[in-house]
Structures are given as structure tokens and as C-alpha cells.
Design goal:
By secondary structure, this protein is of the alpha+beta class. It folds into three domains: 165 residues, Uridine Diphospho-n-acetylenolpyruvylglucosamine Reductase, domain 3, CATH 3.30.465.10; 88 residues, 2-Layer Sandwich (Alpha-Beta Plaits); 78 residues, Alpha-Beta Plaits (2-Layer Sandwich). Helices cover 31% and strands 25% of the residues. The chain has an eight-stranded antiparallel sheet. It has a five-stranded antiparallel sheet with strand order 3-4-8-6-7. Strands 1-2 form a two-stranded parallel sheet. The longest helix has 14 residues.
Length: 374
């Protein structure tokens, strides 16, 4: 199957045809606009290449959906703990290419931590492999990380080897109120993070987002815990020591993942995890000026994610274009005509240009998705 993709890329290279790489097509509005004459869809490039449950690893083709991986590994009492924005109909290739992760990254790391190896077809039509299919294999580690988050600009991901975990027998989602005072919020997050709780996920959600997810309309801290019955019970009790805690449906996480709609503006503020409460306050001040803004934060990663349900007004665009002291602003999705103003390029530096030329010297793969290269 990979040979068919290789032949397609070689043909495109010979004719200087630019290619748009897609998976299930759910995230096509993410990233900058792509200039392409043809599309390569990975939707039929699916299935398991290798799976040895005893090794807690699986190798699948790039078009395999997250739902299919969950079904296959679940039959063996295992799981791949990744929950990026969107639904499980997204493909593993797109998840790796966009470096997408969700609340489960708190306990299990981001997609970069879960990918052991990759196979991909470069813009020259070469098949390249990095990493391995077992946890102890570290060969090509840097190459694996390079491909994770490359947005299809260096190669078309055809196979991915993944780290798995044992599926917990019990899981529970707990919610406690988040203090509105920044200092008290920082203290609560610190005590929860440093305590005897080992949550799979810990996410801070705004009042508006909590309401849309079916929770009480106030800022809340959501935590998912798991393990055997005794471990879950003990962690429930520990969480309750930090405030009035209630158990909420597990479906809450899926509601959070799918809350945004295609075409909405999404950006993140990123920085040191220890300062996430201050970052939350800064994002909140921005959100107050943006009608209908939704916010959630990954406590362990230190990122605050903001979703704007409506297209930004001119005033909002001016706010977003201003530098926010001490923060890194990363745009996930914008109206097509705003990319040049707010985030023109992610690959204008010499190192990025050199890497791009090494893997795709004719610039035929996902041209423009990371911005112009010069």
C-alpha cells in the first residue's frame, strides 16, 4: 500500500504537482491555507501492521482512525491514551502530523511521548523509517519527533508505532469549583498537582464551557482518575479534601472535545505550567472582550486554549495581534484572510527551511500550511 503512495508522490514530483494530504478530512480548516493542485487521501490506508499485546505496542497504517485503534486494543484490555480535539473518527496520521493531544496528556504525555516509530514517504518519493516497534528501541528518536507536528510538510505518514497502556478497570471523573481569584486558583492547582492524586487528566474549564458541557455554569477543575476500585475510591476521597467534589459523567470529556465547530477561531497561550493560573487570568481578560469565547486549560502542560464561536471582529483581531507579555500565542485555526496578519509563518527561519529542503526539496507537500518558507 505504501508503494502506491510512493508512486503517486514520484509522479507529482516529476510533474511539479503540489499535493494536499488528508486523513478523514475533519481538520482541514486547521493550519494555514494550503496551495495544492491535487489531494492524496489516506482514508483507505488503514489497518494493523503489527500488534504484540505483550509488548504494549502496536503498529498501524496512517489512515487508521483513533476509534479503530481503541476497538482493537480494547479487545486485549489495552488502550492508546490520546484524546485530541475532535472525535475518534480522526486518523492517527493526522494526529501525529498535527501533534494534537488533549486532557489525557496530563497523565500519559503528549502524542510525541506516545509515538515510538514512523514510516513516511518524503517529497522526493523515498520511503523513510525512524524509531522502532518496541519501547526499548531508541534509534531514530529525533526523526520521530521531527515528523510529529510537521503538518505533512516533510512527508506523508504511512505507518506509526505506538506505546500502549493497560486499560484501567475503573475510571471516574470528578469536578470541583475553581477559585476565581488568581492566587487562590494557583494554590489549589498546586496542591492538587503535588498531592496524592495521580489523575489521568486535569483540565480547567471556564463558566461558559462548563455550561455547554452540561456542568454547573461556573469555572471548574475536572479530573479523571483510574485504576482498580480501591485506587479510584482513595483518589475520590483525596480530591474531596480540596473542595466540594462531585462525580460527573465520563461523557463530559467527549463534550469538551467536540465543543468547537469548523471555521471557528482557536488559539492557545503557552508557557510554564507553574504560571498557568496567571495565564488563565490573562486569557480571561481577552475572552471578556470576545463575545461567546470558551476557555479550557491543561494544567500539566501550562496551556490555555481559547475558542471563539464567531469570526473575530476588527477589534478582536487588533487584540490578538498585540504581543502578550511573557506568553507564546499559537493559532490553531483562523479565517483564511487573517493568517497573514496574525501568524504569517512558522518556518521562516534558516533551520526550518533547511529541513524542508532536505525532505521535500520541490515543496510539493502541503505547501503553505505552515506559512511561506521565506
Amino acid at each position: 500500500m505504501t508503494s502506491l503512495i510512493q508512486a503517486r508522490v514520484r509522479g507529482a514530483r516529476a510533474s511539479q504537482t503540489t499535493l494536499r494530504i488528508t486523513g478523514s478530512g475533519k481538520w482541514l480548516d486547521a493550519g494555514r491555507p494550503v496551495s495544492a493542485s491535487e489531494t492524496i487521501s489516506m482514508v483507505n490506508h488503514t489497518g494493523v501492521v503489527d500488534y504484540v499485546p505483550g509488548d504494549l505496542t502496536i503498529t498501524v497504517r496512517g489512515g487508521t482512525t483513533l476509534a479503530e485503534i481503541a476497538r482493537i486494543t480494547g479487545d486485549e484490555g489495552q488502550w492508546f491514551p490520546i484524546d485530541p480535539p475532535g472525535s475518534d473518527s480522526g486518523t492517527i496520521g493526522a494526529t501525529v502530523a498535527t501533534a494534537s493531544s488533549g486532557p489525557l496528556s496530563h497523565g500519559f504525555g503528549t502524542i510525541r511521548d506516545l509515538v515510538l516509530g514512523v514510516e513516511f514517504v518524503t517529497g522526493e518519493g523515498k520511503i523513510v523509517r525512524g524509531g522502532g516497534r518496541v519501547v526499548k528501541n531508541v534509534a531514530g528518536f529525533d526523526l520521530v519527533r521531527l515528523m510529529t507536528g510537521s503538518w505533512g510538510t516533510l512527508g506523508i505518514i504511512t505507518e506509526v508505532s505506538l506505546r500502549l497502556y493497560a486499560l484501567p478497570s475503573r475510571r471516574a471523573t470528578m469536578a470541583i469549583d475553581a477559585p476565581t481569584d488568581t492566587r487562590r486558583l494557583a494554590e489549589r492547582l498546586a496542591t492538587l498537582s503535588d498531592g496524592r492524586i495521580m489523575p489521568f487528566a486535569m483540565e480547567l474549564v471556564s463558566r461558559e464551557l462548563a455550561h455547554l458541557a452540561g456542568l454547573p455554569p461556573r469555572p471548574m477543575i475536572l479530573m479523571e482518575v483510574g485504576g482498580n476500585a480501591a485506587a479510584v475510591s482513595a483518589q475520590r476521597d483525596e480530591i474531596a479534601k480540596h473542595g466540594a467534589a462531585v462525580e460527573v459523567p465520563a461523557e463530559t470529556w467527549n463534550k469538551l472535545r467536540t465543543i468547537e465547530r469548523p471555521g471557528e477561531t482557536v488559539f492557545r497561550l503557552s508557557g510554564l505550567p507553574a504560571r498557568v493560573a496567571e495565564r488563565w487570568e490573562r486569557a480571561g481578560r481577552l475572552a471578556e472582550k470576545m463575545n461567546g469565547a470558551l476557555m479550557h486549560a491543561s494544567v500539566a502542560r501550562g496551556t490555555v486554549r481559547v475558542v471563539l464561536p464567531a469570526e473575530p471582529s476588527d477589534d478582536m483581531v487588533n487584540l490578538l495581534s498585540e504581543r502578550i507579555d511573557g506568553e507564546t500565542v499559537i493559532f490553531e485555526s483562523l479565517p483564511r484572510d487573517l493568517w497573514a496578519k496574525l501568524s504569517p509563518s512558522a518556518i521562516s527561519d534558516r533551520v526550518s527551511q533547511g529541513i524542508k529542503k532536505a525532505f521535500d526539496p520541490f515543496d510539493i507537500l502541503n505547501r503553505g500550511i505552515l506559512g511561506p518558507s521565506s
